[in-house]
Amino acid sequence: MTATFAIVDALVEGRVSHVLWRDGTVVHVGAGHGRQRVAALAADAVVDAAGGELIPGLHDHHVHLAALAAARASVPVGPPDVIDRHGFTEALRQAAAGRPGWIRGFGYHESVAGHLDADLLDRLAGGDVPIRVQHRSGQMWVLNTAAMATTGVGALEHAGVERDAGGRPTGRLFGLDAWLRDRVARTPIDIAAVGRELAGYGVTGVTDMTPSAAGDDLTALAPAADPGFPVRVTITGGPDLPDDVLPAVPRGPVKILPTEHQAPDLDDLAARIVAGHARGRPVAIHCVTRVGLVVALAAWRVAGVHPGDRIEHGAVIPPELFGDIRDAGLLVVTQPNLVAERGDEYLTDVEPADLPDLWRLRSLLDAGIAVAGGTDPPFGHPDPWRAIAAASARRTRRGNLLGPGERVTARRALDLFLGTADHPTRLRRIASGERTDLCLLDAPLDDMLENPSSAAVRRTFGADLVRA
Fold first, then answer.
1. Disulfide engineering: 57 pairs with which of 50, 351, 437, 443, CB 3.0-4.6 Å?
2. Domain 1-56+430-468 falls in which CATH fold?
3. pTM for the structure as a whole
């Protein structure tokens, strides 16, 4: 049996209303106060909103669920948790003392201890216990000596294995996530716990943008097919992922992840776009550099554009490319939270010429470009309200302004998370007949947006309330 909820005395777009919700659909919205108004609506449960705002449940358009769950079972070794060599050493050595086997660090940035390789990792954290550290970009792993010996990376002939002038592996690996995963002891992860965490932020739906290539890569996401999973999940996968993997979970665009440590190949990228479109699906191309975006746009010109095609991140977008993006009808899925989380490092690491083009938002909207929002966990914090606050403030952790001209109102930033998985800019509303989950706040929305915080989320109404 499906549960039906009546939410009474809620603010809906500024009006006191009562709402009947069943199985992801708003069945009825009526104005006025009082439980008497819903007595005849046959709800299984009545929730008194007490004047709090009722909004659509938020949808995060760019997450990595399994990686987020793995991060929750790993050791943070980058900002803001770890900011220097001493903190890095202590974090990994305490982890090594407290558990047997492999140690997994995540979120590393060069501001902590510089150019990390096996030699430095051995000196800082030891070379006896196998350690692997993931860069916060998600594009590189660093192994210590014990980890290299355990995996046999020295015998691997692959462009993603960095080697020194003498041909010895440095411990730095690029694009070898699947290879590495098959050679290390798997860390138990709790996907459902991550779903509950996201629901606590008011998130009721996510699009997982991991470019998985095989069914085994998505084993950890199998619980997302269960009726009671805390959030609704759409999966993407890479160009080679079979269509029959997790058939009960909706499928989004094909994720294309060019290799970041090498210039993207135009012909290869165009061929992957064509292959994605041939399956009747849009494509989403990871673009975090100026060169990467230029090549991606060129590849789209060769391959053609399918409705729903997306630029993931768009970390650097020069204004001379606005017209190409708009005219092609491409969607940009951006992560404004990274301005707050990484802005101080950007100010020192990024080429000065690129700083004005970092994580654009208002200029894209003003240019008529479609934009939606994600948080990119675990590479960004999964709380979308932090992203909303960052989009309106454009302040770094240390209070520096980064791109103040790209600020938007918190209300406009919220819209980035109110689209649907298949139409990210088609905003959902609380209206009779609307297909949407719900998020109940403990205050009026206008008051809450003066200082956006997930602390104001009282509860959600979503997949976890639906029982077949």
1. 437
2. Urease, subunit C; domain 1 (2.30.40)
3. 0.90
